[in-house]
């Protein structure tokens, strides 16, 4: 095995050579083989990657990380038989595909924004109506149609949407090894459940941030997977803490071998809102290399990276001037640093298009994606073909990569405005002597630390947990719902401080200000200020 | 515990009292509480069932059937917190729901058939265009809209589609206990994977038909779940064989306790096409009661029950004259016989609306559905909201229950025609001295037994498997793909006979005849006839 490439070299080279740009996509597609347009063709991302990818070394092998369940998965017998369908003139009585005449949908249309008119009002007045019919492929109108979308599909997704996410992945992350693959998923929660099944046996530990997305932990525990919490600061996961947990792992005391999987939300972390800097990620990656840990980066908030917070009286920071500048402004993902292929990136459309779509994708090495797809085809099979078609019409046929980046820049500015509204409200209404926070750089969440040791209940023996509960109910009774920090605490993490999570994603601007006002009043009343 | 009710009594009473009919639905809805129309409301089927359901006894408890994984599942912390949202005037900064202005879809439309013009041509010419916009609920235009569909949902599904499937379940199956529930699923393959996780630990055996849907077995094996095959005849699963396997179960020899889960495809079984009669189902249910076995009935082909096969020269049998007659003509489901609540019915829209929807549902007792939903909310969450909305627009707002039954009757006649085409082709083209079959009464599959002992290769020592492979390739080389029977054999089942599976669901009428002609020629050449 060759020595691991230095992370810094890779980052420098990726930043300067910039192999695939938005402008290069038409040429890339023109050079590729025609995209298969039939029912459930078996394809993978290799068909859609630029030649530049193949100049890179291959990922390492990960045979040692798969679970007993995952190792025993085989290809689907019936999907294997589909290879005979390529024989010209063959009539198939083999598969169980229903005939499309029995799908009672002839046409589907969606009304969507046209760049740059992204608001609902602009869309209603001047949006585009995108239409797909059953026979569009046959009639040469499109490379994807309703007849195909309504039928069975492959686990990796339809070639048409898989191409878009593969190109997008190369544009944004440009992984430093050659054999990466994408696979569509029916949502990130599904993906995480499958990843746990793929990488962990009952009794295994995984590493998680000490405060983490409660559902991610709740997905792991019933599988018999335990959590080893890792310390955090304002930038999230601490590499020193990660190294310490792994270096001092006591197999006998823990009753389990050293964890080989790290789950992290690097950008706009849920619940803390923390974003790991590039330097932080490199340090974490090096610790992962040292202990041979596989990294799962769950990144729903990656494109909710906002403009810098300029303080209460400053002018807003203008949006990025170009797609290139926008992409350059994004913090590097673990995937973009991943010289070993030890990262599985979980991507989501939930925060940038729609959570109700239940459609996202993952990126990892070919070996890992192959195992993931085997799990998928024996459970959810693939995200809904109807959604894949609608997303293809919007992302590929209507917006293209450039329009999608414009949409993401628009979202950045929208979320920046929401975040700023909440920061201003906190500055105006929260009692500064007991509440403190760091303005979040990404995501939907604001993490407010409250100094529970100043609570009058402490004198009468109330615990930290009781005080948190009291404050929570006082806030609810004063008309504002926030989330309790303890809901997000990883099992086994110590809990010295008290936090509340507030989201700026949903309420109106006025609502955000009013809600923080109410929370501030509840805090003052609780703390006798 | 009270003694089990006699299956016969229940069936007789359900058949005569007929508590909920299509015509009764408007009155039922009028008496119910208003359906919740917000984002992700927590509801269950109880809200939509008729009063008649509550006159029945409750199901048994099934605490003893759940797996270690399932028993340890808890409710989602964050979903629990949503109950505070009911406080009037409360501003939520609690959840992580994105604001709908950031979902770039203002409107969705589908063009669908209007009763009775069900063909694609009629739909293109005179179908209805159903439209949903973001603000339909706010504007009083509908009880379900795009804004809600695009956001997060609950595991049991949106109330709007859950109501339809609950009513449909009562209309068709009218379960003989009171506390049954429905839960939407992202497809039956997903449901089966989750059911295995819910009911089985590694090392457990499940009971399956000796020839079964290969993917169903491939889903079980990596979970460490082994298969105990049960014998079949032309009506499918044999109760005597089931009883024998269970009565003679040797824990020591098998290294596992007696199986407590039976997986069966009772109607139009895949691959054999066999349909269990009402008498057969009652006998199987009684064996399940005797050995306390929980039954999973996987029923994608239930509404592909066809008109009786009348032979080559007979007139086609006319369609059912009314909805009542149609419902009466359906073979009773296990669910409709289920006095104990020991049945989990897996329902699918794949064969009757679209497999690409990845949307179906399950029916079982409240206790079982609750455990199922806990698995779902920690993995796929729910089927796509976009699909749920489109199905609601078609099934509920446009067709209603009556129109959906008309569609199902239409499908029956279409499949009857396809089945008849294949039967006629088999009668014309297959060599009767080596090929035999039973005309299927339901489903998509025709199961052809070929007498491999008459193959000339036998003399030169070829095995059954080698002859099967040779015949398969001879057919492919002659331009027809059929499926090999051995692909569907349950692990451990003996294999004395040789079968091929041919589907009449996909190819055109001419294609079916030509394909069977080619298969017949290949057989003749192979067998030297």
UniProtKB/TrEMBL annotation, chains A, B:
Catalytic activity: an aromatic L-alpha-amino acid + 2-oxoglutarate = an aromatic oxo-acid + L-glutamate
InterPro entries on file: Aminotransferase_I/II_large, Class-I_PLP-dep_aminotransf, PyrdxlP-dep_Trfase, PyrdxlP-dep_Trfase_major
Superkingdom: Eukaryota
Domain annotation Aminotransferase class I/classII large: ranges: 152-519
Keywords associated with the record: Aminotransferase, Cytoplasm, Pyridoxal phosphate, Transferase
EC number: 2.6.1.57
Subcellular location: Cytoplasm
Pfam families in UniProt: Aminotran_1_2
Cofactor needs: pyridoxal 5'-phosphate
GO BP, sorted A to Z: aromatic amino acid family catabolic process; lysine biosynthetic process via aminoadipic acid; tyrosine biosynthetic process
Enzyme class: transferase
Recorded GO CC terms: cytoplasm
Principal location class: cytoplasm
GO MF: 2-aminoadipate transaminase activity; aromatic-amino-acid transaminase activity; pyridoxal phosphate binding
Family: Belongs to the class-I pyridoxal-phosphate-dependent aminotransferase family.
Protein name: aromatic-amino-acid transaminase
């Amino acid at each position: 095995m060759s020595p691991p490439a230095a992370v810094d070299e890779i980052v420098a080279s990726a930043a300067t050579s910039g192999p695939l740009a938005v402008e290069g996509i038409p040429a890339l597609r023109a050079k590729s083989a025609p995209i298969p347009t039939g029912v459930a063709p078996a394809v993978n991302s290799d068909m859609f990657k630029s030649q530049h990818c193949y100049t890179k070394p291959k990922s390492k092998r990960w045979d040692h990380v798969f679970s007993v369940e995952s190792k025993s998965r085989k290809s689907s017998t019936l999907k294997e038989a589909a290879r005979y369908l390529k024989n010209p003139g063959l009539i198939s009585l083999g598969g169980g595909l229903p005939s499309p005449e029995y799908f009672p949908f002839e046409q589907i249309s969606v009304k969507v924004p046209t760049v740059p008119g992204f608001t609902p009002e602009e869309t209603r007045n001047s949006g585009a109506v995108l239409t797909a019919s059953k026979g569009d492929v046959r009639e040469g109108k499109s490379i994807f149609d309703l007849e195909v979308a309504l039928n069975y599909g492959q686990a990796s997704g339809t070639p048409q949407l898989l191409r878009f996410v593969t190109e997008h992945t190369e544009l944004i992350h440009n992984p430093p090894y050659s054999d990466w693959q994408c696979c569509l998923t029916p949502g990130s929660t599904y993906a995480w459940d499958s990843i746990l099944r793929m990488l962990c046996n009952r009794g295994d530990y995984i590493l998680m941030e000490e405060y983490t997305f409660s559902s991610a932990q709740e997905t792991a525990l019933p599988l018999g997977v335990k959590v080893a919490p890792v310390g955090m600061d304002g930038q999230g996961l601490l590499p020193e803490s990660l190294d310490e947990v792994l270096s001092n792992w006591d197999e006998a005391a823990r009753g389990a071998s050293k964890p080989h999987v790290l789950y992290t939300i690097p950008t706009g972390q849920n619940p803390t809102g923390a974003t790991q800097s590039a330097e932080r990620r490199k340090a974490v990656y090096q610790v992962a290399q040292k202990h041979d840990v596989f990294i799962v980066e769950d990144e729903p908030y990656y494109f909710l990276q906002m403009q810098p917070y300029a303080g209460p009286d400053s002018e807003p920071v203008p949006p990025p001037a170009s797609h290139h500048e926008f992409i350059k402004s994004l913090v590097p993902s673990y995937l973009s640093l991943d010289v070993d292929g030890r990262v599985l990136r979980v991507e989501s459309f939930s925060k940038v298009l729609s959570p109700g779509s239940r459609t996202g994708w993952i990126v990892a090495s070919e070996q890992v994606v192959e195992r993931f797809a085997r799990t998928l085809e024996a459970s959810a099979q693939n995200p809904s073909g109807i959604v894949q078609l609608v997303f293809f019409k919007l992302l590929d046929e209507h917006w293209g990569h450039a329009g999608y980046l414009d949409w993401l820049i628009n979202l950045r500015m929208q979320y920046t405005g929401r975040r700023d509204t909440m920061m201003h409200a906190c500055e105006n209404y929260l009692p500064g002597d007991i509440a403190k926070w760091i303005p979040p750089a990404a995501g939907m969440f604001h993490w407010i630390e409250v100094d529970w040791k100043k609570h009058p209940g402490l004198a009468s023996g109330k615990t930290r947990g009781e005080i948190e509960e009291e404050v929570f109910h006082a806030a609810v009774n004063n008309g504002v719902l926030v989330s309790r920090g303890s809901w997000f605490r990883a099992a086994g993490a110590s809990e010295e401080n008290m936090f509340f999570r507030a989201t700026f994603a949903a309420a109106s601007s006025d609502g955000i200000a009013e809600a923080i006002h109410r929370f501030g009043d509840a805090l003052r009343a609780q703390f006798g200020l």
